[in-house]
Amino acid sequence: MSTLLAFVDGSVYADSEADHSVWIAGRAALSVDVVHVLGRRVFSGSTSNLSGNISLGARSALLAELSELDEQRAKLAQARGRMILDAAADRMRAGGIENPGTRLRIGDLLETVTESEADMILIGKRGEGADFAKLHLGSNLERVVRASAKPVFVAAREFRPISRVLIAFDGGTSSLKAVDHVSRSPLYAGLDIHVLSAGQDTAEMQQKLDVARGMLAAAGFTPTVSVRPGQPDQVISSAVETDRIDLLVMGAYGHSRIRTLIIGSTTTEMIRSCKIPVVLYR
Question: What is the pTM of this model?
Answer without folding.
Answer: 0.83
